[in-house]
Every structure is written in C-alpha cells, then in structure tokens.
Amino acid sequence: MTRIDDKFAALKADGKKAFVSYIMAGDPDYETSLEIVKGLPGAGVDIIELGVPFTDPMADGPTIQLAGQRSLAAGMTLQKTLDLATEFRKGDDITPIVLMGYYNPIFSRGVDNFLNDAKAAGIDGLIVVDLPPEEDSELCIPAQKAGLNFIRLATPTTDDARLPKVLTNTSGFVYYVSITGITGAASAEAGDVGPEVARIKSHTDLPVIVGFGIKTPERSEAIAKVADGSVVGSAIVDLIAAGKSTDEVLAFVRGLAEGAHRA
Amino acid sequence: MAQDLFNSFMTGPDENGRFGEFGGRFVSETLMPLILSLEAEYEKAKTDDSFWAEMDDLWKHYVGRPSPLYFAERLTERFGGAKIYLKRDELNHTGAHKINNVLGQILLARRMGKTRIIAETGAGQHGVATATVCARFGLKCVVYMGAHDVERQAPNVFRMRLLGAEVVPVTSGRGTLKDAMNDALRDWVTNVRDTFYCIGTVAGPHPYPAMVRDFQSIIGKEVREQLQEQEGEGRLPDTLIAAIGGGSNAMGLFFPFLDDKSVRIIGVEAGGKGVNDKFEHCASLTGGRPGVLHGNKTYLLQDDDGQILEGFSISAGLDYPGIGPEHSWLHDTKRAEYVSITDKEALAAFQLCCEAEGIIPALEPSHALAYVAKIAPELPSDHIIVMNMCGRGDKDIFTVAKHLGVEINSGA
Prior knowledge:
The complex is a heterodimer of chains A (263) and B (412).
Chain A: H1 3-14, E1 18-24, H2 30-39, E2 47-51, H3 62-73, H4 78-89, E3 97-101, H5 103-109, H6 111-120, E4 125-128, H7 140-145, E5 149-150, E6 152-154, H8 163-167, E7 174-177, H9 190-201, E8 208-211, H10 217-225, E9 229-232, H11 234-241, H12 246-262
Parallel strand pairs in A: 1-2, 1-9, 2-3, 3-4, 4-5, 6-7, 7-8, 8-9
Helix pairs in contact in A: 2-4, 2-12, 3-11, 10-12
Chain B: E1 18-19, E2 22-26, H1 32-46, H2 49-63, E3 69-71, H3 73-79, E4 83-87, H4 98-111, E5 116-121, H5 125-137, E6 140-146, H6 147-152, H7 154-162, E7 166-170, H8 177-190, E8 195-197, H9 208-216, H10 218-231, E9 239-244, H11 248-254, E10 264-272, H12 284-287, E11 289-293, E12 295-300, H13 325-332, E13 337-342, H14 343-357, H15 363-375, E14 384-388, H16 397-403
Parallel strand pairs in B: 4-14, 5-6, 5-8, 6-7, 9-10, 9-14, 10-13
Antiparallel strand pairs in B: 1-2, 2-12, 3-4, 11-12
C-alpha cells in the first residue's frame, strides 16, 4: 500500500471523488513552488502531481512548455525536485506525490539511483509520458519493485485490444487523457468521457482519473462525476505564469477541488 | 567485425525496435497504436512486390535514379593517394538524398489511408522533398521548421510554399530543428487519426530508424553494383565515408556493406567550432552520451541533469543533438568509426570540391569530403574510397559567402 492507495481508500470511505493538481516544480522558482505545494493539501488537493522540468516536453502544450523553461532558467533540476518533495514531507506525510515528466532526466541519473532517492524523498508514484508498456523493463518494473506506483496514461486511441497491455503493470490509478492532443488543449465533453471511463473500468479495479483541458470548477465537477476524479494542470500553471500570488493560486485550486468534491 | 552469419550486423533491429540497447519506442500512449499499425503496414509492404515496383518506377522516372558513381579524378590527383569515388545523390530531384525516403513513406501513408502529411525540417531539404512528393500525390502537407531556420533558409521556405505546403515557423523551446521535431510530434498527437508523420532521418520511434534506413539503402546497393561495373567483378570499396546529422544518408550507404568485413566504414559528425566542453558542435557520438529523445534511445548532447543541449554547426542539416540509434550501436560495437570535422575544415573542402571537380557540394557532404582529404593522401593508389555526395550546395551559397566575407543578395 502506498499513500496513493490509502488516499483512494479514504476517499471511497467518504464517498468523495479525487482532485489531483499539477504544477511544475521550480516554477517560477524553487521557493515559490515549494510554498504553493505546501498549500495544496489545505486547498483540497488529494494528490499532488509534481512536474519535473525537461527541455523537450513533446506531449505538452505551450503553458507547460513555458513553465518548464522558467523552471530550468531558475536552475531547477531533478535533484532539486526531489529536495522540494523532501522539504514538503517534513510537514505532510499523508498527501501522495506523483512525479510527472519525461524519461531522460531519470535515465541520465541512473534508474536505480533515482528510485532509491525518490523513495527516500517521499515520492509515491511516477508518470513518465514517453514510457509506453512496450518499454516497461526500463523503469516501470524496477519502480514497482521499489514500491512506487507506476501510473499509466490511457487515451482515446487505446482501444479494447490494447487496454489490457496498458493496464498490466499499472498501479495507483489510471490517468485517462480525455482527448488526442497535448496538455492545455480543449477538453472533451463529460458526455463523451463517461463511456470511455466505463470502458476502462471494465478492464480494471483501479481508480480512473480524467485530465487534459479542465479549466473551471464546473468542468472539474462534471468530469469528476463521470470518473473517480479530475486532474487540472495548465489552468493552474497559467496563473503562476501570470505572476499571481500564492494565495490567489491556492484560491483558484480550492474552487477546482470543491468542484470535484461536489461531484 | 562479423565472424559468421550468426554475428551479422544486418539483422537489426529486434522485435522491440532495438539495435543492442539503442532504439526502442519511447512515445506517449496516444501515438503507440499508430506506431504499431505503421510497423505492421511497413512489414507488409516490405515483402510486397507491387510496393517496390512502384518505388522503383518513381525512383527511376521521378527522382532520376540510379545516381551516378563518379570517379573524382582531379580530387584523387590532388590528394595523391586513394582513388576517390563520389556517389552523386546530389543529382536527385530536389537536390539531395532525402527524397529516396520520402517517396517510401508517402506510398505507405497512401496505403494507410492518411490524407495529411507532416514533417520537420532543418535546412529545408527534407521539407522540400516532402512538399514535392505531397504535391505529386495531391496530399496536404505541413512542415515544421525552427523560426530561426525559416529566416536563414528563405529560398527553401519559398520553395515549399510554391509546392503547396504550409510552413509553420516553430518558436517553442529555442526554435531549432529539435523543437521543430517536438512540434511535429505535438501535431501528430493531436491529429493522430488522419495524419502521417514523415520523419526525415534514421531516428524516432521504431519502425522509423529501420524503415528510413531501408529506403535509403538504395544508395549502397547501387554503389555495390556500380563499383563492380567500373572496377571489375567482385571489387568492393575499401572505405566508405558519409556525413552524419541524424545519419540517414550514411546509413543508406553503409547498410548493404555492414557484413563485408574488408570494408572500413567512417561516419563524419559536425564538429562545429571543435568538440569541446562548451558543446559548440553537433558530434553526438564523439561528444555526447546515451539518452532518450524523440522516441529513441541513442547518443545525445545533454547536460549532467539529462537536459538536451543545442548543437552548433555551420550546416543547418547537421544541427541536431542526437543521431540515429543504429549508428550508436555501430559505434559501440566498433563496426563503424565516427570522427568529427570542424566548420572551418568543411568550408575548405567545399571550396576545393567546387574548383577541382566543378561540383558545388552541400555543407553536409563537405564534412565528409574534409575527412577524405585527411586520410586519402596516406592511402595507396589501389585503395578505393566511396564518399556519399548526399546534397548539392545551392542552398548553402549564402552561408558560405557570409563566412568568406562576401556580400551577395540572397533575394530573401
């Protein structure tokens, strides 16, 4: 059992849907992002996705691309991302943290080193966009062995024939990408998402969380209603990009979380 | 070197798209089903005579293949050693080897029922080739090109537009070739159902490295036949030399000779201002280390944190921080040697080729020629070097003029 499994068990007991938020570690700088991350659980966030900056985020839209560039320009690294998690864990041992990013910084560090350090930093799960099940031996299987959840993306192009392959070796939850596209693009209609979530759930007992393109509390609620929860990233990162204060960012997050929790 | 059939260098990649540890399929889930169906379609086409008959017909009548294998008598005299042959792929329609591969991919796209073609381009040669073949088959074509390259390669941008392609200047990241590839991948993820991504080099997720290599292998196959016609039955080249950015022209020349133990194989990377710790070069093999980018594991220019670095080269066509995974494997197994040539050396070779042979080479093969100039004088006169003249230099005359301190009106 990881903190992620515990969290979903607790939400289930409360009859609540999950709200997952994404921000880029180190955006716009280490201190500010640490302050925001520390405030997320209080704003109603159930699971924190922490972006690891990478120079070539090929599945991300402009909002998250620019966040990564700001973060790298401010000197952020994978090591400092782990430091940030360690710092957060000093005051919160319950809220799960999922690292989300691309494989090269992890590969560059060395998979075994990375897994040891991530575990020590209190990381609970990994989402690595450019590691499909065909590459499971690279990181997915070693991560599961190390006790970290490996969370997979399922997409509208993942058909029934392929779903079992995607779900094998997936743990924690399934992240359903509701559109074929990049982060921050237009969102799918809840009416279209519902049947897709049901399709995935017919293959797995894992919770299914839906993201991509959710920008408002209403949308967060509508999507969470047809799934086990919603994920918001780009809309939050947009506020950070606009230089909003931590309080303003967290107030926005609170609205999105309340939307999901109303569902 | 290959000892027997079981140690063949020509059987890769394996079923996971790996050449040793290199290659693979490092893409997002959205693209995986498409990549798998592309692989299936390519496997079908590979053994389908009608596919190759169509390719051969287009290669012959549209591209102008076979390209000549030309004995460069004056360069040979100048160097005073090995006998130099140039494989004249710069005489192809659109002026480079790029079209060999584009034709194959567009025929596959048609078989898959895709109606929209996207491509990335650096100097513009792959973009022009893709726009050309799309015009020939009436397909919609969108070319991603770094904003900086759009500015400095204005004639190629205009060519692509004349051919009916939409050229999208890429401003994401730092607006270079690798960012153009990122934006092409983002487009593909978004328009996955009707769009085919025509990759210009032997990189990207499996099956691209193998597929592009197979389409480019026409270069080496022709060399094998042509050299025997000119030098006698059974005569193989002693040394093969080609320039490498992503490495498609080199793979095309090398591949048919990988199991011929006597053939020495040399790839020439862009050394820019010199392979130094400031990364003012594009020599992924001589100055980088293994990593994962754009769908494959291969040697990359990167910092200690695994962040990708920008390369630097006078040649926009070599300006890429990675290299095809099969080259990484040939490097590690030592079947091929990889060396680097600086901007300065390439410029000197460019000028030499113009005045000694009446051939204006592209800056990319000028790198290969500069290495020929280094080793040929020391080799005996019965040693045959075949160098791939993979592109013509019309596109580069403005860059060369600038470096020589000459002002000409680019018309840009």
